[in-house]
Amino acid sequence: KIFANDDLKIILITASFGKTSIKNFLYELLKEQYICYKTPRSVNTFLGIIKDINENLNPNTQIYIVEAGARKQNDILEITQFLNPQFCIVGEIGLAHLEYFKTQENIRKTKLEALNSKRLEKYFLHSSTLYKDEFYDNFLTQVQANLDGLKFKMKLDNQEYSFYTPLLGAFNAYNLSACIAMSYYLKVDINDIVKNVAKLKPVEHRLEIISKEPKFIIDDGFNGNFKGMSQSYELCKTYQGRRVLVTPGIVEVNEEENIKLCKIINECFDFVIITSEVNSQILNKYIELENIVLKDKTKLVETLANFTKNGDLILFSNDAPSFM
Question: What's the pLDDT tens digit per position in 293-305?
C-alpha cells in the first residue's frame, strides 16, 4: 500500500521522549501545504503502524508522519526496514526505558537504527545522539520560557528568525526546532512556519493549562523524563503564589534520577502530593518540603480540596489524573 503511492514521503520520528509532541507539531506546520497524515495518539510499534496503514492511510497522502518507539534492540530497525522513510528525526536520547536497555549507549544505538533506510534523503538529529553531523538543537538561541509561553530564535541558512509560541516549557523549543528544520527543508515558507508556530496548542497532558482561576492547574501527566519534568518545575517556580506538585516521581529509571529531581522539587514547590508508592520511599527521604503519600488515587480530588486553596498553582507531573 505505501509503495503503490509514488508521491508518498514518509517522516520517521524517534527519541527517548518528545516523539509524540514532535509528531503533532510537525503535522501542524506541514498540513496547510501538504496532504498529511500522522500515526494516531501514541501508536508507535511495528504492528500498530501496520494496522494504522491498513486501516487509515489514504492513497492520496503526500506525507505520512510516523512515530517509532522501542523496548529492545532492533525495534526501530524493524520499523525502518519496513517503511524505508525518506526523512527521519532522531530526538533527544535519555534514560527512558533504561530497565529494558540497561545502558544509555544501547538506547542511543537503537534510536539510530532509524538511519538504516534504503531511501533516506535527509535526517535531523539531536546533539545527544553523538552522531557525526550537525545537530538541529545547535541552531537554537535565546530560549525564554515562562507561564505566558515560549520565545526563541533559530538560525536557518545563516539567517536568524524569531519565534513565539503559547506552548509552555523550554524543552518545547528543542522539539520545535526539529519540526521547523524539517518544514523548512520541505520548502514551507518561513513566514508560514513562524505564523503556525504561534498558533500551536499543547499536546494533551503535556504542560496543558487546564485553568488559571480560581486555581492555576497545569496537566503535565504524560511528561515522564528528568529533563522535561525539571524544566516544568523551573517554570512553576516563576509563579507568584503557593505551588503544589502532584507526582509519582520518575518511573523506569535509576534511583539517581529521582534524587536529582527531589533537589529541584525542593527549590520550586511548597507542598507535594506523592501519588505512587513505587518511589514514595526515595521521594520521602529526599523531599524536604511538607508532603503526603496518596495510597488511594480515588481520594485525589478530596485530597486536593483539603490541601489546596484558591490562588494555588497545581502541577500534575507524570501522573495524569483520571478525572482529566
Answer: 988 888 899 999 9
* Residues 200-213 as b or e (16 or more Cβ within 10 Å = b): bebbebbbbeeeee
d(CA 135, CA 126): 5
Q: State the cell numbers at 163.
A: 519565534
Residue 306 has which C-alpha cell? 483539603
Q: What is the pLDDT of residue 324?
A: 42
Distances (CA, A) of 146 to 167, 197, 199, 207, 222: 10, 17, 17, 12, 20
For the chain, the distance separating the N- and C-terminal CA atoms, rounded to the nearest angstrom, is: 38
The answer to whether 283 and 310 have CB atoms below 8 angstroms apart is no
- Please state, in angstroms and rounded to a whole number, the distance separating the CA atoms of residues 244 and 304: 10
Q: CA dist 259 to 39, 220, 265, 310, 315, Å?
A: 35, 20, 10, 30, 19
For strands 140-146 and 149-156, give the pairing: antiparallel
Pairing outcome for strands 63-67 and 9-14: parallel
* Kind of pairing between the strands at 271-274 and 290-293: parallel
Distance CA 92, CA 108 (A): 9
Reading across the β-sheet that carries 87-90, which strands appear in turn?
36-38, 63-67, 9-14, 87-90, 122-125
Residues 286-296, mean pLDDT to the nearest whole number: 91
Distances (CA, A) of 247 to 23, 54, 118, 121, 254: 26, 38, 43, 42, 17
Instruction: Output DSSP code: residue 113.
Output: G
pLDDT tens per residue across span 30-73: 999 999 999 998 899 999 999 999 999 999 999 999 999 888 88
The conformational region for residue 321 under phi > 0 = left, psi -120 to 50 = alpha, else beta, is beta
Residue 96 has pLDDT above 80, yes or no: no
Angle formed by the axes of helices 171-185 and 190-197, nearest 10°: 150
